[in-house]
């Protein structure tokens, strides 16, 4: 057997399971031990200083230098007491991972450990090494990171990490967090105003997010033996195994012990970091799993998701495992996504997406439900763009994950409620009438979603007391789709508030005005509601009839970010300028191109240097055997048949690789980044990737197992 493949398999046979023990049986003993959280701040800071931090967090107030110095000093003392010598500003640049640059507390001149308030508040990492989409001309290669006090400081590894935003000197956002904070602020304002129509005591909203994270785990030696996994995060070749996921036996089955210990280990690390991980289970595909923390404030949840992915990656090393976050590491098997559970909770503690026993709260519930649906309807293209990536292209529209068509699932009970509201016509409400009863919204039963009502094929589903955006890619920073979601709903709520106010000014009763406005939205946004099977061909046809966008390729979906409407929307709410949108668009297209470029190179290299040579070796064996059979006067036609098949596939691979590389030369010359990205999608990926893969995968089924150079799916997915 091929050396590389055999060696990797030998290593795996000898693996043992490392048992993992938690620091204590009680999670509360170590939860957030590595976080400089409110409790630690309260006890470390003078009361006045602490209350200044609190108002910075809750009201976004600026922190003065003196306060910053006191906080910095307290943080440093805490870190030193835990044996930590370095600190870093921790941020999420547009590369997609997290970034840090470590500085020592030790000041050699003074001979002591120091953390100044100014260093806590602001740093200047060299921004030129991060993508900026051409925002900075070369002479202005500076950017700075600024502390975000609303996300707690933590210790990860041997370093004190200070969550920050990352912006250019001219003020443009160079990270994911800045626009998210601004969009959250926008929805906070407009949602609060809408809530005040129902309850004057509401003075703010908290936006909640809980991310379910899917991932694959494979042995590290096996991972290292597949150059495509190492370089591209996904296998560009590989026939799916005889036993894939058709038995559905992996889902909710028992977790293999090595993976179980890995999970336990990274969960402990997460808990120490204050990430409230709570559920773990197997996913649909072999070797696929899911982890979900409890929901938190959207900014913290977003930081936590990035941090958790980093923790999962590093802890996997200890267990000689590799965690894969790619949206589609293995063709033919389920891909990985991130389900974003999202809701809005008032300062008085009411989840506006929770149907209630109070009629008044139900009208508020319907207001938010219908406005969200309307926002998705009006901005489906933008929402689709927010989850665009080369990796996610393999999931969306691949008939096993949410399709590229955005739609909203409500379940039968709520559908009936909205239908009734729609058909009620203009209400006549007389004095003394119970309007809620007349409208049929005096009581909306608590939505109990049984499994039949839980449509897993919907990209945007209402799940009882929250919406769940399921089309988000597993490798993605969730800040991007959450920025868009917050923004489009913010805009919709603003419009709603204005329209209802106008109606009231014209003399309509407030409740009637609200209901009439909602009725208009229900009608206008009906096309986006879909209760059926989102994976089916019928839905694609139906969606087209309804005029819903269905942009399968991310390179094209990204256009929605730079339309005049999108620019106006982002600018109106001060989330991003047209320039920032253009820059991000450029970065995303570049990124898309780079991903496909790497894959194309891998396909050509692995195809020509591993697969074809193996096939030729096998051909020689066949030819020797065929000639020998002939010498003995025996029938050798079966040998000839195999030879012909092998020959055909070699020929396909060889000619297609040559063609692809030639065409790549042409495509690379296209100046405009967007056009080049689309050309990569249509002319390189679309034309050649599958054609070559089919030939390679057929060879995998023909060649002597001994000769096959690449680890097979069954070996990667079922051995542990
Ligand atoms: P599922 O059955 O889809 O796995 P769960 O009830 O387990 O759903 O919740 C999945 C995620 O949704 C968890 O992260 C959970 O904390 C989160 N979640 C629950 N309620 C809310 C809410 N009101 N807002 C946001 N996220 C929520
Ligand atoms: Mg879910």
From TrEMBL:
Gene Ontology biological-process annotations: glutamine biosynthetic process
Residues annotated as domain GS beta-grasp: 85-171
GO molecular function terms attached to this record: glutamine synthetase activity
Gene3D superfamilies in the cross-refs: 1.20.120.1560, Glutamine synthetase/guanido kinase, catalytic domain (3.30.590.10)
Superkingdom, taxonomy of origin: Bacteria
Pfam families: Gln-synt_C (PF00120), Gln-synt_C-ter (PF18318), GSIII_N (PF12437)
InterPro entries hit by this protein: Gln-synt_C, Gln_synt_N, Gln_synth/guanido_kin_cat_dom, Gln_synth_cat_dom, Gln_synth_gly_rich_site, GS_Type-3, GSIII_N
Domain GS catalytic residues, every copy: 183-611
PANTHER family found in the cross-reference section: GLUTAMINE SYNTHETASE, TYPE-3 GLUTAMINE SYNTHETASE
Annotated protein name in UniProt: Glutamine synthetase
Classification lineage: Bacteria, Pseudomonadati, Bacteroidota, Cytophagia, Cytophagales
């Amino acid at each position: 057997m091929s050396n590389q493949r055999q060696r990797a398999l030998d290593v795996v046979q000898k693996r043992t399971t490392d048992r993992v023990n938690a620091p204590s049986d009680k999670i509360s003993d170590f939860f957030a031990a590595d976080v400089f959280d409110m409790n630690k701040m309260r006890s470390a800071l003078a009361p006045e200083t602490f209350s200044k931090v609190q108002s910075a967090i809750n009201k976004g107030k600026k922190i003065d230098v003196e306060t910053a110095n006191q906080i910095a000093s307290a943080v440093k003392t805490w870190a030193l007491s835990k044996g930590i010598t370095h600190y870093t500003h921790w941020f999420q640049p547009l590369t997609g991972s997290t970034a840090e640059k470590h500085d020592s507390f030790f000041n050699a001149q003074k001979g002591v450990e120091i953390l100044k308030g100014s260093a806590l508040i602001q740093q200047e990492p060299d921004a030129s090494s991060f993508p900026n989409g051409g925002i900075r001309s070369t002479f202005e290669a500076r950017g700075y990171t600024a502390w975000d006090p609303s996300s707690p400081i933590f210790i990860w590894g041997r370093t004190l990490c200070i969550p920050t935003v990352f912006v250019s000197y001219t003020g443009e956002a160079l990270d994911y967090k800045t626009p998210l904070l601004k969009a959250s602020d926008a929805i906070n304002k407009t949602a609060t105003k809408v809530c005040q129509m129902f309850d004057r005591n509401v003075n703010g909203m908290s936006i909640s997010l809980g991310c379910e994270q899917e991932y694959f785990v494979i042995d590290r030696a096996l991972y290292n033996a597949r150059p495509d996994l190492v370089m591209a995060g996904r296998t560009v070749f590989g026939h799916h195994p005889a036993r894939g996921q058709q038995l559905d036996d992996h889902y909710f089955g028992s977790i293999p012990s090595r993976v179980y210990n890995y999970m336990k280990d990274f969960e402990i690390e997460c808990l120490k970091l204050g990430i409230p991980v709570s559920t773990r289970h197997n996913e649909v595909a072999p070797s696929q799993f899911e982890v979900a923390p409890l929901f938190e404030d959207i900014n913290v949840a977003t930081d936590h998701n990035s941090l958790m992915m980093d923790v999962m990656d590093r802890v996997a090393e200890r267990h000689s495992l590799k965690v894969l976050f790619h949206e589609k590491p293995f063709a033919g098997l389920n891909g990985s996504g991130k389900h974003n559970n999202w809701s809005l909770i008032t300062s008085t503690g009411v989840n506006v997406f929770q149907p209630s026993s109070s009629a008044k709260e139900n009208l508020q519930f319907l207001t938010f439900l219908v406005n969200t649906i309307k926002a998705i309807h009006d901005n489906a293209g933008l929402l689709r763009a927010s989850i665009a990536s080369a990796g996610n292209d393999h999931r969306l529209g691949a008939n096993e994950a949410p399709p590229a068509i955005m739609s909203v699932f409500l379940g039968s009970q709520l559908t009936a409620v909205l239908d009734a509201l729609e058909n009620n016509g203009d209400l006549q409400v007389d004095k003394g009438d119970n309007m809620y009863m007349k409208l049929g919204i005096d009581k909306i039963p608590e939505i109990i979603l049984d499994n039949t009502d839980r449509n897993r094929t919907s990209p945007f589903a209402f799940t009882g007391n929250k919406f769940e955006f399921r089309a988000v890619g597993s490798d993605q920073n969730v800040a991007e789709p959450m920025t868009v979601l917050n923004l489009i709903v913010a805009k919709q709520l603003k419009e709603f508030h204005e329209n209802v106010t106008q109606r009231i000014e014209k003399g309509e009763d407030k409740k009637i005005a609200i209901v009439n406005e909602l009725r208009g939205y229900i009608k206008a946004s009906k096309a986006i509601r879909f209760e059926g099977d989102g994976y089916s061909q019928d839905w694609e046809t139906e969606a087209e009839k309804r005029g819903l966008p269905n942009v399968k390729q991310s390179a094209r979906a990204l256009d929605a970010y730079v339309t005049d409407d999108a620019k106006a929307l982002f600018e109106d709410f001060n989330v991003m300028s047209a320039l920032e949108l253009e820059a991000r668009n450029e970065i995303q297209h570049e990124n898309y191109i780079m991903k496909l470029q790497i894959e194309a190179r891998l396909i050509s290299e692995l195809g020509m240097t591993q697969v074809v040579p193996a096939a030729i070796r096998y051909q020689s064996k066949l030819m020797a055997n065929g000639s020998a059979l002939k010498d003995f006067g025996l029938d050798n036609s079966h040998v000839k048949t195999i030879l012909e098949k092998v020959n055909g596939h070699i020929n396909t691979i060889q000619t297609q690789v040559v063609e692809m590389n030639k065409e790549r030369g042409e495509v690379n010359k296209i100046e405009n980044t967007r056009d080049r990205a689309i050309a990569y999608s249509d002319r390189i990926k679309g034309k050649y990737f599958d054609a070559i893969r089919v030939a390679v995968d057929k060879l995998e089924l023909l060649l002597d197992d001994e000769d096959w150079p690449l680890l097979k799916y069954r070996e990667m997915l079922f051995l542990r």
